[in-house]
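TL;DR need structure tokens for one chain.
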Amino acid sequence: MSSNPLLYFSGLPKFNEVKPDHVSPAIDSLISEGRASVEQLATSQETPTWENFAIKLEDHSEKLGRAWGQVGHMNSVVNSPELREAYNDNLQKLTDFGCDLSQDKRLYAKFKTIQTSVDFKNLTPTQQTIINHEVRDFKLGGAELPTDQKARFKEISEQLSKLSSKFEENIMDNTNDFTHIVETADALAGLPADAIEAAADAAKVAGKTGYQFSLHYPSYLPVMQYAENRALRETLCRAFSTRASELSKPEWDNTNLINDILKLKKEEANMLGFKNFAELSLATKMADTPEQVSEFLDTLAQRAKPYAERDMKELTAHAKSLGLDDMQAWDVGYVGEKLRQEKYAFSDQEVKQYFPEENVLAGLFKVTETIFGVKVQKAETPLWHDDAAFYVINDQDNNPIAYFYLDLYSRQNKRGGAWMDTCITRRKTAKGIELPVAFLTCNFSAPVGDKPALFTHDEVTTMFHEFGHGLHHMLTQVDEYGVSGISGVEWDAVELPSQFMENFCWEWEVLSNMTSHVETGEPLPRELFDKMIAAKNFQAGMQMVRQIEFSLFDMRLHGDFDPNGKLSALDVVEQVRDEVAVLRPPKWNRFPNSFSHIFAGGYAAGYYSYKWAEVLSADAYSLFEELGVLSEEAGSRFKAEVLAKGGSRPAMESFVAFRGREPSMDALLRHSGMGS
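>> reply
TL;DR here they are.
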């Protein structure tokens, strides 16, 4: 068993050695060890303290979390039938173990004993926060339920983990399965040369002639944005918008999974004494009630909708000028790009030529090094794929303080989207400080031919976003596992550092030093940058009401919606669109079926977090606007009061400590072109 790479905890993971058949033995061993440890701690006659109880329980959680984190990551980035089977088999074991743990009245009683003891005040504020979180989480985990209800609560948790995993798998399988061949180059007018070359390469790899397109973003988006072939746009749009629905292959239909997930979440919330899952979800967030969230979203919608209506009117008029009197869903991206080019005299494709991967990474690291006083360098360690890379973050004295893995390109058997996840969380042990390690994953276009990977400005922004999450995890100075890095941070505040970092992508001082034209080597011209700034809030009103639409849909599904009633999730999203949308998708659009954020991720009754945290991030960045874009003073304060503190105190306290006051919506509206 000692040769199992998933049971190696003395250093960085051995990704080059991990195989699917390592998963079950490792997880079985760790769960068995965990159950023995729990029993020993639960039956101990010692008065529970931080040292003899809380820390010891944490030790095992860290090891199990570290091993499972490697498995989950590989399942997302190098998925295979064997790994998927091992993942799902052990997911159920972990859920079962986690439920037993959270329902253990003996452990719960010991945490309450610590919380109410006279010595509680002698614990550090961070330790007190962890104990308070533990008591809260035991309540939310069903520890106070009557014995006869605990079995059902556990069954619900197990079913939810299984259904969520299946929801994500259906999207991945449907996305991977779809391909569309275009026989001749004549049918690809308007498409950028690199998109055509990538499609030709994809066809060649598949043993076909012509040009092959897929629903992976690097293939799909250029078609929707540039292809003059309207039928091609429609084909891909229909396939993309009906993924994992009854309009695709029956075995991948998520419709019933949505209803089953909602029923189980409602039952879970009711068992814990909440009216609905939205109330349960907010028990661990900054926002207090679903009503507060709805009021926030409604206020934002009222401010944004007039701008969205103006955007839509302009888009429709331009569509008509292009001969598209009946603009459809598959025309919107194409018309929008044409309008942008007419108004601002540049295209995304033109900008993309100035953002080779090497320059983008150098620019991102320079911003990080300048404002946060660190150094980022490439390093070597075993990886799971040739696309991946590894880096170390050093302090000013060249001492390592964190590490991260970077996996940038889209490929088959890799989950779509972009995300940051934890590999190792910083904590202090008897052997010293264990340094934090992050996973940073994107789905950008890989290099084509002899050219480097080129990124759109949106992709550059995405990279800065995910790196912001990574910095929150990596620059923590908290030594206690439970609230180190992003652990313990309220979900509606966790997007603050990520959205904060996006702002630097719109600064000349930053971009002028991180661009190099792929052919000429020339930096981004100031004239082109000025056009980008002028176009920054292009269709911002439409984009904001779309995010509000998703957020309201999420809150209502997990609020008063009755999954046993006559209305479907699709009906709910249509009702929300009646209120806020200015652009209506076709009736065959099945957006809910691929909304993995809320059905397979952690955003159930929490999707509003993106807009909530954007208020925080825009207001936080306004200090840099006052003191200087790359202000070391502002960076030092942000690092010390937000990033370093992790979840050791409420996010609002961290924001106020940094900014000197509570946040205001004004900065967000101003950044979005909707305020003075």
